[in-house]
Amino acid sequence: MTAVDDAPIQTTDAPTMHGALANLDEEFSYWLDTAHGEVPANLRGTFIRNGPGRQRIGDTPYGHWFDGCGMLSVFSIAEGKVHFANRYVRTPKYVKETATQQIQYRGFGTQIPGGLRKNIGRMPGNPANTNSVYHGGKLLALYEGGRPFEVDAATLETVGEYTYDGELKKSNVFSAHGHVHGPTGDWINFGTGSMGVGLKGPKLCFNIFRIKKAGTMVAKGQLPVQHFPFAHDYALSGKYAIFFINSITMGAVGKVMFGSQSIGEGVRFDDDIPMTIALVDLDTMQEVRRIETDPGAIIHFGNAYEDGDEVVVDAMFSDEFEANEALSDIFNAKALKGGEWRRYRINAATGALSFEVMTDVNSEFPTFNQHKACQENEYTFAAASVENGADSFFNGFHRADRAGNVQLHTLDPGFYGSEPLVAPASDSADDRDAYILEVVYDAFTHTSSLVIFRADDISEPVASLPLRHHLPHQFHGYWHDDILLNAARV
To answer: pLDDT for 455-478, tens place per residue?
Structure first.
Protein backbone atom coordinates (compact mmCIF):
# COMPACT_ATOMS: atom_id res chain seq x y z
CA MET A 1 0.00 0.00 0.00
CA THR A 2 1.05 3.60 -0.54
CA ALA A 3 -0.29 6.62 1.26
CA VAL A 4 -0.64 10.31 0.55
CA ASP A 5 -0.89 12.47 3.69
CA ASP A 6 -1.49 16.21 3.75
CA ALA A 7 0.76 16.59 6.85
CA PRO A 8 -1.67 17.61 9.63
CA ILE A 9 -0.61 20.54 11.79
CA GLN A 10 0.10 19.68 15.42
CA THR A 11 -1.75 21.92 17.86
CA THR A 12 -3.38 21.83 21.28
CA ASP A 13 -5.11 25.23 21.13
CA ALA A 14 -8.10 24.40 18.93
CA PRO A 15 -11.57 23.94 20.46
CA THR A 16 -13.10 20.48 20.74
CA MET A 17 -16.08 19.00 18.92
CA HIS A 18 -18.43 19.45 21.90
CA GLY A 19 -20.05 22.65 20.65
CA ALA A 20 -21.81 20.69 17.90
CA LEU A 21 -23.68 18.71 20.55
CA ALA A 22 -25.83 21.78 21.19
CA ASN A 23 -29.47 21.44 20.16
CA LEU A 24 -30.72 22.77 16.85
CA ASP A 25 -34.35 23.32 17.78
CA GLU A 26 -35.24 25.54 14.80
CA GLU A 27 -36.32 24.13 11.44
CA PHE A 28 -35.14 25.92 8.30
CA SER A 29 -35.64 25.98 4.54
CA TYR A 30 -33.41 28.30 2.51
CA TRP A 31 -30.93 28.53 -0.37
CA LEU A 32 -27.24 28.62 0.45
CA ASP A 33 -26.42 31.95 -1.15
CA THR A 34 -22.67 31.96 -0.48
CA ALA A 35 -20.25 29.54 -2.11
CA HIS A 36 -16.47 29.51 -1.83
CA GLY A 37 -15.53 27.83 -5.09
CA GLU A 38 -18.01 26.47 -7.62
CA VAL A 39 -20.66 23.79 -7.19
CA PRO A 40 -20.07 21.24 -10.00
CA ALA A 41 -22.58 21.41 -12.84
CA ASN A 42 -22.71 17.60 -13.06
CA LEU A 43 -23.68 17.19 -9.41
CA ARG A 44 -27.46 16.79 -9.14
CA GLY A 45 -29.55 15.10 -6.48
CA THR A 46 -30.54 15.01 -2.83
CA PHE A 47 -28.17 14.49 0.11
CA ILE A 48 -30.03 13.48 3.27
CA ARG A 49 -28.42 13.18 6.69
CA ASN A 50 -30.07 11.77 9.80
CA GLY A 51 -29.02 12.00 13.40
CA PRO A 52 -29.94 13.49 16.76
CA GLY A 53 -30.91 17.13 16.43
CA ARG A 54 -30.94 17.54 20.17
CA GLN A 55 -29.09 15.96 23.06
CA ARG A 56 -31.08 17.71 25.78
CA ILE A 57 -34.76 18.12 26.48
CA GLY A 58 -35.39 21.08 28.74
CA ASP A 59 -32.36 21.17 31.03
CA THR A 60 -31.89 17.40 31.04
CA PRO A 61 -29.36 15.63 28.80
CA TYR A 62 -30.23 12.25 27.36
CA GLY A 63 -28.27 9.33 28.78
CA HIS A 64 -26.67 8.33 25.48
CA TRP A 65 -25.84 9.90 22.13
CA PHE A 66 -28.10 7.29 20.48
CA ASP A 67 -31.19 8.70 22.23
CA GLY A 68 -31.56 12.20 20.78
CA CYS A 69 -34.57 12.83 18.52
CA GLY A 70 -34.01 12.25 14.80
CA MET A 71 -33.66 15.28 12.56
CA LEU A 72 -33.37 15.02 8.78
CA SER A 73 -30.99 17.52 7.15
CA VAL A 74 -31.57 17.75 3.40
CA PHE A 75 -29.21 19.34 0.88
CA SER A 76 -30.73 19.57 -2.62
CA ILE A 77 -28.12 20.20 -5.33
CA ALA A 78 -28.85 21.16 -8.95
CA GLU A 79 -27.63 23.60 -11.59
CA GLY A 80 -24.84 24.84 -9.38
CA LYS A 81 -27.21 25.76 -6.54
CA VAL A 82 -27.76 24.20 -3.10
CA HIS A 83 -30.89 24.35 -0.95
CA PHE A 84 -30.92 23.35 2.73
CA ALA A 85 -33.82 22.21 4.87
CA ASN A 86 -34.07 20.40 8.20
CA ARG A 87 -37.02 18.88 9.98
CA TYR A 88 -37.51 16.64 12.99
CA VAL A 89 -39.23 13.31 12.51
CA ARG A 90 -42.53 13.60 14.42
CA THR A 91 -42.29 10.36 16.36
CA PRO A 92 -44.44 10.00 19.50
CA LYS A 93 -41.24 10.53 21.49
CA TYR A 94 -40.49 13.83 19.75
CA VAL A 95 -44.06 15.11 20.00
CA LYS A 96 -44.56 14.32 23.68
CA GLU A 97 -41.13 15.39 24.87
CA THR A 98 -41.31 18.64 22.90
CA ALA A 99 -44.66 19.46 24.46
CA THR A 100 -43.56 18.69 28.03
CA GLN A 101 -39.85 19.54 27.76
CA GLN A 102 -39.16 16.45 29.84
CA ILE A 103 -37.88 12.92 29.21
CA GLN A 104 -40.95 10.76 28.63
CA TYR A 105 -39.41 7.69 26.98
CA ARG A 106 -36.62 5.32 27.82
CA GLY A 107 -33.77 5.09 25.35
CA PHE A 108 -30.71 2.98 24.61
CA GLY A 109 -28.97 4.61 27.57
CA THR A 110 -31.70 6.85 28.99
CA GLN A 111 -34.02 6.08 31.90
CA ILE A 112 -37.18 8.02 32.67
CA PRO A 113 -36.69 10.00 35.89
CA GLY A 114 -38.63 8.37 38.72
CA GLY A 115 -36.93 5.00 39.24
CA LEU A 116 -38.34 1.51 38.69
CA ARG A 117 -41.97 2.63 38.81
CA LYS A 118 -41.47 4.80 35.73
CA ASN A 119 -39.33 2.33 33.76
CA ILE A 120 -40.56 -1.19 34.51
CA GLY A 121 -41.95 -2.94 31.45
CA ARG A 122 -41.42 0.05 29.20
CA MET A 123 -39.29 -0.49 26.11
CA PRO A 124 -37.23 2.34 24.61
CA GLY A 125 -38.99 4.89 22.44
CA ASN A 126 -38.12 5.11 18.75
CA PRO A 127 -36.31 8.39 17.90
CA ALA A 128 -35.94 7.51 14.16
CA ASN A 129 -32.51 9.09 14.34
CA THR A 130 -29.87 6.88 12.66
CA ASN A 131 -30.19 6.61 8.88
CA SER A 132 -32.54 7.13 5.96
CA VAL A 133 -33.40 5.53 2.63
CA TYR A 134 -35.55 6.44 -0.36
CA HIS A 135 -36.79 3.17 -1.81
CA GLY A 136 -40.00 2.05 -3.47
CA GLY A 137 -41.12 5.69 -3.59
CA LYS A 138 -40.92 6.06 0.20
CA LEU A 139 -38.53 8.13 2.30
CA LEU A 140 -37.91 6.26 5.55
CA ALA A 141 -36.17 7.43 8.72
CA LEU A 142 -34.49 4.42 10.31
CA TYR A 143 -33.61 3.27 13.83
CA GLU A 144 -32.71 -0.32 14.65
CA GLY A 145 -34.80 -0.49 17.82
CA GLY A 146 -38.14 -0.29 16.02
CA ARG A 147 -39.96 0.04 12.73
CA PRO A 148 -39.13 2.83 10.26
CA PHE A 149 -40.99 6.13 10.06
CA GLU A 150 -42.20 7.34 6.68
CA VAL A 151 -41.53 11.00 5.84
CA ASP A 152 -43.02 12.77 2.83
CA ALA A 153 -39.97 13.37 0.62
CA ALA A 154 -41.52 16.44 -1.02
CA THR A 155 -42.42 18.28 2.20
CA LEU A 156 -40.53 16.48 5.04
CA GLU A 157 -43.84 16.06 6.89
CA THR A 158 -43.94 12.88 8.96
CA VAL A 159 -46.47 10.34 7.67
CA GLY A 160 -46.08 7.75 10.43
CA GLU A 161 -44.68 4.34 11.27
CA TYR A 162 -44.23 2.20 8.16
CA THR A 163 -45.03 -1.54 8.15
CA TYR A 164 -44.89 -2.72 4.52
CA ASP A 165 -48.61 -3.52 4.51
CA GLY A 166 -48.35 -5.26 7.86
CA GLU A 167 -45.37 -7.46 6.95
CA LEU A 168 -43.32 -5.74 9.67
CA LYS A 169 -45.03 -6.82 12.88
CA LYS A 170 -45.09 -4.74 16.04
CA SER A 171 -42.49 -7.06 17.55
CA ASN A 172 -40.14 -6.66 14.57
CA VAL A 173 -37.21 -4.29 14.68
CA PHE A 174 -35.67 -3.02 11.49
CA SER A 175 -32.00 -2.11 11.25
CA ALA A 176 -30.80 1.35 10.31
CA HIS A 177 -28.42 -0.31 7.84
CA GLY A 178 -30.38 -1.96 5.11
CA HIS A 179 -28.55 -2.10 1.78
CA VAL A 180 -29.69 -1.77 -1.80
CA HIS A 181 -28.79 -4.84 -3.85
CA GLY A 182 -27.09 -3.40 -6.91
CA PRO A 183 -28.03 -6.10 -9.46
CA THR A 184 -31.77 -5.99 -8.69
CA GLY A 185 -32.48 -2.71 -6.90
CA ASP A 186 -34.05 -4.68 -4.03
CA TRP A 187 -33.54 -3.39 -0.49
CA ILE A 188 -32.41 -6.00 2.03
CA ASN A 189 -32.53 -5.35 5.76
CA PHE A 190 -32.48 -7.26 9.04
CA GLY A 191 -33.31 -6.97 12.73
CA THR A 192 -32.70 -8.93 15.92
CA GLY A 193 -35.57 -11.24 16.88
CA SER A 194 -36.56 -14.63 18.21
CA MET A 195 -37.31 -18.01 16.63
CA GLY A 196 -39.33 -19.11 19.64
CA VAL A 197 -38.44 -20.31 23.13
CA GLY A 198 -36.19 -23.23 24.04
CA LEU A 199 -34.99 -24.81 27.27
CA LYS A 200 -32.52 -21.97 27.80
CA GLY A 201 -34.96 -19.20 26.96
CA PRO A 202 -35.59 -17.27 23.71
CA LYS A 203 -33.89 -18.69 20.62
CA LEU A 204 -32.35 -15.54 19.20
CA CYS A 205 -31.97 -14.82 15.51
CA PHE A 206 -31.59 -12.15 12.87
CA ASN A 207 -34.79 -11.71 10.89
CA ILE A 208 -33.89 -10.89 7.29
CA PHE A 209 -36.24 -8.98 4.97
CA ARG A 210 -36.15 -8.54 1.20
CA ILE A 211 -38.10 -5.67 -0.38
CA LYS A 212 -38.50 -5.43 -4.15
CA LYS A 213 -37.49 -2.29 -6.00
CA ALA A 214 -41.16 -1.32 -6.24
CA GLY A 215 -41.45 -1.42 -2.42
CA THR A 216 -43.18 -4.77 -1.73
CA MET A 217 -41.74 -7.14 0.85
CA VAL A 218 -41.32 -10.47 -0.94
CA ALA A 219 -39.12 -12.71 1.23
CA LYS A 220 -38.07 -13.30 4.82
CA GLY A 221 -35.40 -15.45 6.40
CA GLN A 222 -33.94 -16.18 9.83
CA LEU A 223 -30.33 -16.61 10.91
CA PRO A 224 -29.82 -18.21 14.36
CA VAL A 225 -27.40 -16.46 16.74
CA GLN A 226 -26.02 -17.90 19.97
CA HIS A 227 -26.03 -14.74 22.08
CA PHE A 228 -27.70 -11.32 22.03
CA PRO A 229 -25.17 -9.30 19.99
CA PHE A 230 -24.98 -5.59 19.27
CA ALA A 231 -26.28 -5.88 15.70
CA HIS A 232 -25.97 -2.64 13.76
CA ASP A 233 -24.86 -3.38 10.19
CA TYR A 234 -24.01 -6.16 7.75
CA ALA A 235 -22.43 -6.43 4.29
CA LEU A 236 -24.18 -7.24 1.00
CA SER A 237 -22.67 -8.77 -2.14
CA GLY A 238 -24.30 -10.02 -5.32
CA LYS A 239 -24.97 -13.49 -3.87
CA TYR A 240 -24.82 -13.12 -0.09
CA ALA A 241 -25.84 -11.21 2.98
CA ILE A 242 -22.72 -11.35 5.14
CA PHE A 243 -23.15 -11.06 8.91
CA PHE A 244 -20.20 -10.57 11.27
CA ILE A 245 -21.83 -11.67 14.54
CA ASN A 246 -19.68 -9.74 16.98
CA SER A 247 -18.38 -10.18 20.51
CA ILE A 248 -20.41 -7.32 21.98
CA THR A 249 -23.20 -8.69 24.12
CA MET A 250 -26.28 -6.71 25.08
CA GLY A 251 -26.43 -8.10 28.63
CA ALA A 252 -29.41 -9.24 30.68
CA VAL A 253 -32.70 -8.42 28.98
CA GLY A 254 -34.49 -9.12 32.28
CA LYS A 255 -32.89 -6.13 33.99
CA VAL A 256 -33.99 -3.90 31.14
CA MET A 257 -37.56 -5.20 31.29
CA PHE A 258 -37.60 -4.83 35.09
CA GLY A 259 -36.53 -1.24 34.65
CA SER A 260 -33.42 -1.43 36.79
CA GLN A 261 -31.00 -0.57 33.98
CA SER A 262 -30.94 0.72 30.43
CA ILE A 263 -29.83 -1.38 27.48
CA GLY A 264 -26.60 0.60 27.22
CA GLU A 265 -25.64 -0.15 30.82
CA GLY A 266 -25.60 -3.87 30.06
CA VAL A 267 -23.55 -3.68 26.87
CA ARG A 268 -20.01 -5.08 27.09
CA PHE A 269 -17.30 -6.57 24.93
CA ASP A 270 -16.78 -10.25 25.85
CA ASP A 271 -13.32 -11.64 25.04
CA ASP A 272 -14.71 -15.16 25.49
CA ILE A 273 -17.15 -14.80 22.57
CA PRO A 274 -15.54 -15.37 19.16
CA MET A 275 -16.67 -13.25 16.23
CA THR A 276 -18.60 -15.42 13.78
CA ILE A 277 -19.12 -14.76 10.07
CA ALA A 278 -22.27 -16.14 8.45
CA LEU A 279 -23.09 -16.11 4.73
CA VAL A 280 -26.78 -16.14 3.79
CA ASP A 281 -27.77 -17.01 0.22
CA LEU A 282 -29.97 -14.22 -1.11
CA ASP A 283 -32.00 -16.53 -3.36
CA THR A 284 -32.96 -19.04 -0.66
CA MET A 285 -32.56 -16.76 2.43
CA GLN A 286 -30.73 -19.70 4.04
CA GLU A 287 -27.34 -19.82 5.74
CA VAL A 288 -24.69 -21.53 3.59
CA ARG A 289 -21.44 -20.95 5.50
CA ARG A 290 -20.40 -20.04 9.07
CA ILE A 291 -16.82 -19.21 10.09
CA GLU A 292 -15.56 -18.64 13.62
CA THR A 293 -12.68 -16.24 14.18
CA ASP A 294 -11.02 -14.22 16.95
CA PRO A 295 -13.15 -12.02 19.22
CA GLY A 296 -13.96 -8.69 17.64
CA ALA A 297 -16.63 -6.31 16.51
CA ILE A 298 -17.48 -4.55 13.28
CA ILE A 299 -19.96 -1.71 13.55
CA HIS A 300 -19.98 -0.52 9.92
CA PHE A 301 -19.30 -2.08 6.52
CA GLY A 302 -18.45 -0.74 3.09
CA ASN A 303 -19.06 -2.51 -0.18
CA ALA A 304 -18.85 -6.28 -0.77
CA TYR A 305 -18.56 -8.29 -3.98
CA GLU A 306 -17.59 -11.74 -5.28
CA ASP A 307 -14.15 -12.47 -6.73
CA GLY A 308 -14.47 -16.10 -7.83
CA ASP A 309 -15.26 -18.15 -4.71
CA GLU A 310 -14.13 -15.31 -2.48
CA VAL A 311 -16.24 -12.51 -1.07
CA VAL A 312 -14.38 -9.21 -0.57
CA VAL A 313 -15.68 -7.01 2.25
CA ASP A 314 -14.56 -3.60 3.53
CA ALA A 315 -15.13 -3.31 7.28
CA MET A 316 -14.13 -1.27 10.34
CA PHE A 317 -12.82 -3.67 13.01
CA SER A 318 -12.39 -3.18 16.75
CA ASP A 319 -11.32 -5.52 19.54
CA GLU A 320 -13.17 -3.56 22.23
CA PHE A 321 -16.22 -1.30 22.69
CA GLU A 322 -14.93 1.46 24.92
CA ALA A 323 -16.77 3.89 22.65
CA ASN A 324 -20.00 3.03 24.49
CA GLU A 325 -18.66 4.72 27.63
CA ALA A 326 -17.94 7.91 25.69
CA LEU A 327 -21.33 7.80 23.98
CA SER A 328 -23.02 7.44 27.38
CA ASP A 329 -21.37 10.65 28.64
CA ILE A 330 -21.18 12.53 25.37
CA PHE A 331 -20.89 16.04 26.82
CA ASN A 332 -17.73 15.03 28.69
CA ALA A 333 -16.29 12.56 26.19
CA LYS A 334 -12.63 13.25 25.44
CA ALA A 335 -12.69 11.54 22.07
CA LEU A 336 -14.96 9.55 19.78
CA LYS A 337 -13.07 7.28 17.40
CA GLY A 338 -13.53 4.26 15.18
CA GLY A 339 -11.45 1.19 14.44
CA GLU A 340 -9.13 -0.52 12.01
CA TRP A 341 -9.99 -0.45 8.32
CA ARG A 342 -9.79 -4.04 7.08
CA ARG A 343 -10.44 -5.57 3.69
CA TYR A 344 -11.58 -9.16 4.25
CA ARG A 345 -11.55 -12.06 1.80
CA ILE A 346 -13.94 -14.91 2.67
CA ASN A 347 -13.85 -18.11 0.64
CA ALA A 348 -17.46 -19.27 0.43
CA ALA A 349 -16.39 -22.73 -0.81
CA THR A 350 -13.67 -23.56 1.76
CA GLY A 351 -14.31 -21.18 4.66
CA ALA A 352 -10.79 -19.72 4.42
CA LEU A 353 -10.57 -16.20 5.86
CA SER A 354 -7.93 -13.47 5.43
CA PHE A 355 -7.71 -9.70 5.58
CA GLU A 356 -5.38 -6.79 4.93
CA VAL A 357 -5.21 -3.58 6.94
CA MET A 358 -5.77 -0.65 4.61
CA THR A 359 -4.29 2.14 6.75
CA ASP A 360 -2.93 2.74 10.24
CA VAL A 361 -5.23 5.79 10.65
CA ASN A 362 -8.25 5.30 12.91
CA SER A 363 -11.30 4.90 10.63
CA GLU A 364 -15.10 4.74 10.64
CA PHE A 365 -18.22 5.26 8.50
CA PRO A 366 -17.11 3.62 5.20
CA THR A 367 -18.94 4.71 2.05
CA PHE A 368 -18.72 4.08 -1.69
CA ASN A 369 -20.48 4.94 -4.92
CA GLN A 370 -23.85 3.19 -4.64
CA HIS A 371 -23.95 2.75 -8.42
CA LYS A 372 -21.31 0.04 -7.77
CA ALA A 373 -23.15 -1.70 -4.93
CA CYS A 374 -22.41 -5.45 -4.79
CA GLN A 375 -19.81 -5.28 -7.58
CA GLU A 376 -16.13 -4.44 -7.67
CA ASN A 377 -15.65 -0.72 -7.02
CA GLU A 378 -12.54 1.39 -7.38
CA TYR A 379 -12.82 3.75 -4.41
CA THR A 380 -13.95 3.35 -0.79
CA PHE A 381 -13.96 6.30 1.63
CA ALA A 382 -14.05 6.52 5.43
CA ALA A 383 -14.02 9.13 8.17
CA ALA A 384 -10.64 9.44 9.92
CA SER A 385 -9.43 10.49 13.34
CA VAL A 386 -5.97 11.99 12.94
CA GLU A 387 -3.79 12.75 15.94
CA ASN A 388 -3.16 16.47 15.57
CA GLY A 389 -3.97 17.79 19.04
CA ALA A 390 -7.58 18.46 18.00
CA ASP A 391 -8.89 14.94 17.46
CA SER A 392 -11.84 14.76 19.85
CA PHE A 393 -14.00 13.72 16.87
CA PHE A 394 -13.45 12.71 13.24
CA ASN A 395 -11.22 15.42 11.81
CA GLY A 396 -10.56 14.10 8.33
CA PHE A 397 -11.39 11.42 5.81
CA HIS A 398 -9.48 9.16 3.47
CA ARG A 399 -9.82 7.11 0.32
CA ALA A 400 -8.50 3.66 -0.50
CA ASP A 401 -8.47 2.44 -4.07
CA ARG A 402 -8.72 -1.17 -5.22
CA ALA A 403 -4.92 -1.47 -5.35
CA GLY A 404 -4.60 -0.35 -1.73
CA ASN A 405 -3.33 3.19 -2.31
CA VAL A 406 -4.62 5.58 0.37
CA GLN A 407 -5.09 9.35 0.25
CA LEU A 408 -5.83 11.23 3.48
CA HIS A 409 -7.40 14.65 3.87
CA THR A 410 -7.07 16.22 7.33
CA LEU A 411 -9.30 19.12 8.32
CA ASP A 412 -7.77 22.16 9.98
CA PRO A 413 -7.59 21.92 13.81
CA GLY A 414 -10.92 22.87 15.36
CA PHE A 415 -12.91 21.66 12.34
CA TYR A 416 -14.77 18.33 12.50
CA GLY A 417 -16.53 16.20 9.91
CA SER A 418 -18.02 12.74 9.88
CA GLU A 419 -19.19 10.24 7.27
CA PRO A 420 -17.90 11.24 3.78
CA LEU A 421 -20.84 10.56 1.49
CA VAL A 422 -20.25 9.68 -2.17
CA ALA A 423 -22.43 11.49 -4.74
CA PRO A 424 -22.08 10.14 -8.31
CA ALA A 425 -21.58 12.58 -11.16
CA SER A 426 -24.78 12.86 -13.18
CA ASP A 427 -23.06 12.35 -16.54
CA SER A 428 -20.84 9.32 -15.87
CA ALA A 429 -21.13 5.69 -14.75
CA ASP A 430 -17.46 5.50 -13.66
CA ASP A 431 -17.39 5.25 -9.85
CA ARG A 432 -14.25 7.42 -9.80
CA ASP A 433 -16.25 10.22 -11.40
CA ALA A 434 -18.04 11.34 -8.27
CA TYR A 435 -17.99 13.85 -5.43
CA ILE A 436 -17.52 13.61 -1.69
CA LEU A 437 -19.97 15.53 0.49
CA GLU A 438 -18.81 16.43 3.99
CA VAL A 439 -20.72 18.42 6.60
CA VAL A 440 -17.96 20.22 8.49
CA TYR A 441 -18.40 21.89 11.89
CA ASP A 442 -16.30 24.97 12.66
CA ALA A 443 -15.82 24.95 16.43
CA PHE A 444 -14.40 28.49 16.39
CA THR A 445 -17.56 30.09 14.96
CA HIS A 446 -20.11 27.41 15.94
CA THR A 447 -21.31 27.08 12.34
CA SER A 448 -21.33 24.27 9.79
CA SER A 449 -20.71 24.09 6.06
CA LEU A 450 -21.35 21.69 3.21
CA VAL A 451 -17.94 20.98 1.69
CA ILE A 452 -17.59 19.27 -1.72
CA PHE A 453 -14.53 17.36 -2.93
CA ARG A 454 -13.76 15.46 -6.12
CA ALA A 455 -13.58 11.73 -5.45
CA ASP A 456 -10.45 11.28 -7.55
CA ASP A 457 -8.51 13.97 -5.67
CA ILE A 458 -9.50 14.85 -2.11
CA SER A 459 -6.54 17.13 -1.43
CA GLU A 460 -8.63 20.32 -1.69
CA PRO A 461 -12.38 21.03 -1.85
CA VAL A 462 -13.97 22.34 -5.02
CA ALA A 463 -16.67 24.22 -3.09
CA SER A 464 -17.63 25.13 0.46
CA LEU A 465 -21.09 26.47 1.30
CA PRO A 466 -21.63 27.86 4.82
CA LEU A 467 -24.91 27.43 6.66
CA ARG A 468 -26.42 30.16 8.80
CA HIS A 469 -26.07 28.00 11.91
CA HIS A 470 -24.46 24.80 13.15
CA LEU A 471 -25.64 21.27 12.43
CA PRO A 472 -25.35 18.86 15.35
CA HIS A 473 -23.09 15.88 14.74
CA GLN A 474 -25.23 13.33 12.91
CA PHE A 475 -24.82 9.67 12.05
CA HIS A 476 -25.44 8.67 8.42
CA GLY A 477 -26.23 10.08 5.01
CA TYR A 478 -28.05 8.93 1.89
CA TRP A 479 -27.82 10.12 -1.72
CA HIS A 480 -30.62 10.04 -4.28
CA ASP A 481 -30.08 11.07 -7.90
CA ASP A 482 -33.23 13.24 -8.14
CA ILE A 483 -34.44 16.40 -6.42
CA LEU A 484 -37.10 15.25 -3.95
CA LEU A 485 -37.98 18.38 -1.96
CA ASN A 486 -40.61 20.70 -3.45
CA ALA A 487 -38.98 23.80 -1.99
CA ALA A 488 -35.73 23.01 -3.82
CA ARG A 489 -37.06 22.56 -7.34
CA VAL A 490 -35.57 25.04 -9.80
So the answer is: 999 999 999 999 999 999 999 999
Residue 431: alpha-carbon gap to chain centroid: 21
Judge contact between 57 and 125, C-beta under 8 A: no
pLDDT at residue 248 greater than cutoff 60: yes
Q: Could you tell me which CATH number the domain at 3-488 has?
A: 2.130.10
Helix (H), strand (E), coil (C) string for the chain: CCEEECCCCCCCCCCCHHHHHCCCCCCCEEECCCCEECCCCCCCEEEEEEEECCCEECCEECCCHHHCCEEEEEEEEECCEEEEEEEECCCHHHHHHHHHCCCCCCCCCCCCCCCHHHHCCCCCCCCCCCEEEEECCEEEEECCCCCCEEECCCCCCEEEECCCCCCCCCCCCCCCCCEECCCCCCEEEEEEEEEEEECCEEEEEEEEEEECCCCCEEEEEEEECCCCECCCCCEECCCEEEEEECCEECCCHHHHHHCCCCHHHHCEECCCCCEEEEEEECCCCEEEEEEEECCCEEEEEEEEEEECCEEEEEEEEECCCCHHHHHHCHHHCCCCCCEEEEEEEEECCCCCEEEEECCCCEEEEEECCHHHCCCCCCEEEEEEECCCCCCCCCCEEEEEECCCCEEEEECCCCEECCCCEEEECCCCCCCCCEEEEEEEEECCCCEEEEEEEECCECCCCCEEEECCCCCCCCCEEEEECCCCCHHHCC
- pLDDT tens digits, residue range 451-461? 999 999 999 99
417, pLDDT greater than 50 = yes
pLDDT level of residue 212 (50, 70, 90 thresholds): very high
Query: CB–CB of 372/324 below 8 Å?
Result: no
